[in-house]
Amino acid sequence: MDSLKIIGGQPLSGEIPISGAKNSALKLMAACLLTAEPVTLTNMPNLADTRFLSQLLQTLGVEVYWPKGDSECRLNAEKLTSTIAPYEQVRKMRASFNVLGPMLARYGHATVSLPGGCAIGARPVDLHLQAFEAMGADLLVEQGYVKAAAIHGLKGAQIVFPFVSVGATEHAMLAATLAKGETVLENAAREPEIADLADCLISMGAKIEGAGSSTITIQGVDELHGTNHKVMSDRIEAGTYAMAVAAAGGHVTLTNAPVGALSAINHALRNAGVKVEADKDAGTIEIETTGQPLAPVNVDTAPHPGFPTDLQAQFMALMSVARGTSVIRENIFENRFMHAPELSRLGANIAVRGSEAIVTGVEKLKGAPVMATDLRASVSLVIAGLAAQGETTVSRIYHLDRGFERLEEKLSAVGANIRRTSEEDEG
Ligand code: EPU
């Protein structure tokens, strides 16, 4: 199993190109199931998760042309050979569950394994299922699978989500594009990835209004056609590198950055005393530290446009070296502080009380062996390792490979001392 070895204390300087967004790419890939014509996605991130989904799509009969390392992926779902997504594949990655809605909408039936819980929380899919029921689907949950049928097709519906869910909003929107009549999604998630998915669907002939706001209206159409769509850039990757620079010190320009999607993050970084210059037209964000200690900043995770839960771990690593105490509240997932004890191994002073972490900054972190527990937790350990004195080894980095493209290459290019090693897992 691979590990990352980091010698901390090097300031970072230069440019880091931001890749396509994992959480957008995964839903855009599922959208190919809605049409018999080819869908070409550019700016595709080469990640374990996007490759997993490509394998699942191939199991269903989708022709995928995506050479290794290429940022263009062509998907052709002209003829599906199966509408069953098996447990062995869905359990590897939760977002695989999103193939249900498109297959149900286009073929009138689909059987998809329930994804199961994951390290950061139980993550049920009840809201997804309620949306399909409201659209007239018959659902049977049996032996860990959801068997869904809508023999006469899905019908438009008024769906009011009891709380905001990114996945349920996207999944319902995908299915509603081919439902008969109008679907209105109320209390919809407003994440930028939802607007990206809507843009792609609209270019396929879907009729969608309001994506990016909390009410989305979809007029169903009889069929969708193929398209060419550029995956938006990854705001979580951009925020992660911004925090890495803030923690290690230096001056880095993020290029191909989704500038408009990063307001909450830029705001938190500025409050911590980091210089942040965003240029929307150029798609760049310049991050520069001042040499002064960072100020503590409290953050509460919240649905967009609030502070994203996917950057909470990274921000905690940053606050570990601020001067003073900050409070970080996790409001989206019930078990997303697993990085706290690992950060403590590097000398961070963090007390977790329920959904709150109280972080008292220390002057210096010290390198140590640590273990990654989930995707964003892993990268928070990399950030801490870059800021720490001495050597940090982050093991179990397969989590990291799920969501960060060429991480060590991008960080080495701006002066970080980081390398990947292969070794037996001792944990
Ligand atoms: N929830 C339910 N029932 C549902 C759906 C969600 O109870 O039917 C709960 C979840 O358990 C969670 C909350 O609602 O407590 C919000 O979950 P949401 O549905 O918004 O999250 P998701 O769609 O499963 C996506 C991202 C996550 C990101 C969240 C929140 C993808 C593939 N995943 O998950 O990304 O944290 O939105 O922004 O888009 C990551 O990339 O590391 C990651 C975990």
UniProtKB/TrEMBL annotation:
Pfam families: EPSP_synthase (PF00275)
Coiled coil: none
Binding residues annotated for UDP-N-acetyl-alpha-D-glucosamine, in chain numbering: 94, 123-127, 310, 332
The keyword Cell division is assigned to this record: yes
HAMAP family assigned to the protein according to its UniProt record, in alphabetical order: MurA
Full protein name: UDP-N-acetylglucosamine 1-carboxyvinyltransferase
GO MF: UDP-N-acetylglucosamine 1-carboxyvinyltransferase activity
Residues carrying 2-(S-cysteinyl)pyruvic acid O-phosphothioketal: 118
The reaction(s) this protein catalyses: phosphoenolpyruvate + UDP-N-acetyl-alpha-D-glucosamine = UDP-N-acetyl-3-O-(1-carboxyvinyl)-alpha-D-glucosamine + phosphate
Gene Ontology, cellular component aspect: cytoplasm
InterPro entries: Enolpyruvate_Tfrase_dom, Enolpyruvate_Tfrase_sf, MurA_subfamily, RNA3'P_cycl/enolpyr_Trfase_a/b, UDP_GlcNAc_COvinyl_MurA
Enzyme's top EC category: transferase
Pathway(s) annotated for this protein in UniProt: Cell wall biogenesis; peptidoglycan biosynthesis
Similarity comment: Belongs to the EPSP synthase family. MurA subfamily.
All residue ranges annotated as the Enolpyruvate transferase domain in the record: 8-411
NCBIfam families membership: murA (TIGR01072), PRK09369.1 (NF006873)
GO annotation, biological process: cell division; cell wall organization; peptidoglycan biosynthetic process; regulation of cell shape; UDP-N-acetylgalactosamine biosynthetic process
Protein species of origin: Henriciella barbarensis
Subcellular location: Cytoplasm
